[in-house]
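Review box. Two proteins, two foldings.
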Amino acid sequence: MTAADPVSEQLAEAIRAALPDAVVEVRPQSPGHYALRVVSAAFEGKGLLDKQRLVYAAIAPLMKGDAAPVHAIDHLETQVP
C-alpha cells in the first residue's frame, strides 16, 4: 500500500475495514483528490459498478460534508486477486 499522508491512510483503513482481505494502494493527486487501486476477493463475480459501490460505501464518511478531506476519487481500479 502507498500512503503519503494521513488522509491516504484513512482511506486505506476505511477500505480494509469494509473489505478485510483488501490490498489497497492510495495515490494522492491534487489536494483532496485521490487515485485508488483495490484488490479483494469480495469483488469476485461482481460487475464494475457493484465493485465501485463497495469501495465508495467504505469511504463515504471521508467524502461527506463541506469540510470533507476527500473531494474526489479521480481513478478507481478494482481487481480480484
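Next protein.
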Amino acid sequence: MDDVELIFDHVGIPTDDKQPDEDWVESTRVWVTNPRNHKYRVEFLRFEPDTPCKWEVVNLPHVAYRVKAEDFPKLLEGVEILIEPFEVDENLTIAYVKKNGMPVEYMVFKDPDLWFGKRSEDDE
C-alpha cells in the first residue's frame, strides 16, 4: 500500500467520564470529543453500555488517519474489520480495522475542517 496516503488525525482514548462538548454517534452508541480542540489531538470516547462495538474499540486506544475516498476500499482489503464502514454524518465516513493487534480508524472527510457540522476552534 505504498501508494496510499495516511494523514494522522488523532489518538482516541476510551473514558468512562463525561467530557465537555461531546458529540453523539448513534450507530456506535458513543459520545466523542473533537480532537482538533485538544492540544495533542486526543479524542475521548465514552461508550454507552449497549454499544455494538467490539471489545478492542471500546477498551483500547486507537490511532486515526484521514484517507482519500478512492483509497478507503483498499485499506479494508485483507484486514480484520472491527467496525464496518459507515457514515457518521453527511461529512464523515469511517471504519475501524485491527492492525498489529490495535484498533486503527480510517476517516474519509468531505470537509476535514468540519466536525459534526461545526468548524474546529483552531480553524475559527
